[in-house]
Amino acid sequence: xxxxxxxxxxxxxxxxxxxxxxxxxxxxxxxxxxxxxxxxxxxxxxxxxxxxxxxxxxxxxxxxxxxxxxxxxxxxxxxxxxxxxxxxxxxxxxxxxxxxxxxxxxxxxxxxxxxxxxxxxxxxxxxxxxxxxxxxxxxxxxxxxxxxxxxxxxxxxxxxxxxxxxxxxxxxxxxxxxxxxxxxxxxxxxxxxxxxxxxxxxxxxxxxxxxxxxxxxxxxxxxxxxxxxxxxxxxxxxxxxxxxxxxxxxxxxxxxxxxxxxxxxxxxxx
Length: 270
Hints:
The protein has helices at 3-33, 45-48, 66-74, 89-95, 118-127, 130-146, 148-162, 191-214, 223-226, 254-269; strands at 38-41, 78-81, 106-109, 167-171, 218-220. By secondary structure, the chain is an alpha/beta fold. The two termini are 43 Å apart.
């Protein structure tokens, strides 16, 4: 073996040994760090906890939303939820960023649905014909394509500016409806309507995923977790049209937050 080969072999061996030694230390540091984290939850009703039990205040926050569940399970150093029902990218930027700073370790959020009027679209579909629903979804998707990307870019830039060292996890929205059953209870939500709304949610999620990843954030879809648990299915993790309280309509229930959103956040954190 030549002298040059010996030198290269030594370098490779040394590098491998350093990786083997460092890996357990890095893993241990990461595991220990959770108790020292400062965690801030931002976003709209899917982060504040609308649909869960225990909602309070004007923002309808609940400890049974996924941020509160994660806080209970992990006991970070500090936890604060600024998420608020009805939030848009504009109201998040103007009213939810005060809790962020250079010490913030983790930020989670859902945002974008209210910017394109998705809740209004679902209500329209409840009352309209199949074709009227398809038109309402198409109109919402114009906003998704033409307006939402710039709004998300600005929102993500503001979050990064306020929390330069944080890991930011952006979670998506569930695909709301089961499409396999013919009868969907009150509201007259036919299979064509459900398919239109599900297609809209899929495209909305795709835009949020693309912009969050472009910002260097971690995207976490909840579509897989909620698969088989849509509204009208046998084991729904979402409320259908709800009379009391009406705000719960088309939001996750306790199971949706615990078994849908919380695992999606955990997966994003590794």
